[in-house]
Each structure stands twice: as structure tokens, then as C-alpha cells.
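Final report, closing paragraph on structural work. Over the funding period we assembled a curated collection of sequence-structure pairs, and we close with a single example.
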Amino acid sequence: MKSKLLVSLGLGALILGASQMANAGVSIGLNLAVPPVYVAPAPVYVAPAPVYAPPPPPPAVAYQPVPVAAYQPVVATSFVIGWHGGQYWDGRRWWSRHDWYAHRHW
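Its predicted structure, as stored:
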């Protein structure tokens, strides 16, 4: 039984030795514990959905009312040459009927 144990231990040592020979690289490392730098992704702009807006109504137009012409009557004295009742006006003076017929016409 001792021989089986020795054979299995020898075989295990041989396997360990063979695996170390296969991994015979030498590495020396230096590690500094620095937290990673976080860079935020670029912001993404998403355009809102287009919204239909009807055009504005045309501007309100206010017309001025038509001016009402309220004419004032023109009052002026008029000199009407001729008979006025029983007297005659010649543009200069009043004549009675008798004076007018007696007057000499030029």
C-alpha cells in the first residue's frame, strides 16, 4: 500500500512540475490604485414631434364711417331790385308807388 501511495504522490509531483515548466514566464507588475475616469456620453437632443398650428386670422380692419355732411344753410342778405309790397327798391333807396311813377327815367 505504501508503494501505491508513493507512486500516486510521485505522479502528482510530476504533473505539477510539468505544468510549471509550461508556464515559465516571469512577470513583474506595479499596480497603482487610481479610480477610473468616468466620461459622460454626449447629450442627445431629440426634436419634439411637429405640431400643426393653423395660421392666424387676418387682422381686423376697422373702417371709418362715411362722414355725414350736415351742411349749414348759407344766410346772406340779398338785394332784390323790384317791388316789395307797396314800395320799389332800386338798389339804392325805397320809392313809393307814386314817387316811382313820377320819377323821370333817364
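Helices lie at 2-22, 97-102. The first strand starts at residue 82 and ends at 84. We thank the funder for supporting this effort.
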